[in-house]
Amino acid sequence: MIPTWLACAFAQKACRLGKSVLYTRVPRLLEELRIARGDGSHKRRLIALAKLDVLLLDDWALQPREKYGRDDLLEVMDDRAERRATIITAQLPTEHWHAWIGEPTIADAILDRLHHHAHRITLKGESLRRARSSKTAPSDLT
User: Fold this and answer.
1) Cα angle vertex 111, ends 7, 29, to 5°?
2) Coil, helix or strand at residue 57
3) Are 110 and 73 in contact (CB under 8 A)?
4) Which pairs with CB-CB distance under 8 Å and at least 24 residues apart come from 91-94?
5) Torsion over CA of 136, 62, 24 and 47, rounded to 10 degrees?
6) Which CATH superfamily includes the segment(s) 4-136?
7) With 90 as the cut, is the pLDDT of residue 7 above it?
8) Per-residue pLDDT, 122
9) Which long-range contacts (CB under 8 A, 24 or more apart) does 135-142 make?
10) Looking at the DSSP assignment, which residues form a beta bridge with residue 54?
């Protein structure tokens, strides 16, 4: 899966090229959309997301999603498919995304829209956070 720092580098390049970009964590976005359903701004929020040139969704499949979250992800992906760039970062391997989404029909629809023109980058190796923390951690605690 693509790490956050690399996804942010792509997003930063898009900004420098004059593109509109939004970085958000998936759990936060789904919570905002859930709240927007209650305050009447849901449709406006979906329209705004659809207009962005680049949407960077960090922490995909990090925590369980609710039914409305599944529906909202479908709406977002459907509005953006083949029109706008969507960058996704995830710890969960893509072969497990279908099970994470849950509802098979909606999972098929979301993943079809994501994978149709996708460029997948999978990095292997140690996390940069772990590598940095091991360099700065004291080696002797006496």
Assistant:
1) 55
2) strand
3) yes
4) 91/1, 91/59, 91/61, 91/62, 92/1, 92/60, 92/61, 92/62, 93/1, 94/1, 94/120
5) 170
6) P-loop containing nucleotide triphosphate hydrolases (3.40.50.300)
7) yes
8) 76
9) none
10) 21, 85
C-alpha to C-alpha distance for 86 and 118, rounded to whole angstroms: 9
Q: Following DSSP, what letter does each residue of 58-112 receive, concatenated? A: EEETSS---HHHHHHHHHHHHHHTTTSEEEEEESS-GGGHHHHH-SHHHHHHHHH
- Edge-first strand order for the sheet with 21-25 is 21-25, 54-60, 85-90
- DSSP for 22-44 reads EEEEHHHHHHHHHHHHHHT-HHH
Per-residue tokens: 132: 């940095």
Q: Are 49 and 28 in contact (CB under 8 A)?
A: no
Residue type, 8: C
| Residue type for position 89 | T
Q: Give which of 90, 85, 135 is closest to 113, Cα–Cα.
A: 85
Is the separation of the CB atoms in 80 and 50 below 8 Å?
A: yes
Lowest mean pLDDT among 5-9, 38-42, 94-98: 94-98
CB atoms within 10 A of CB 112: 12
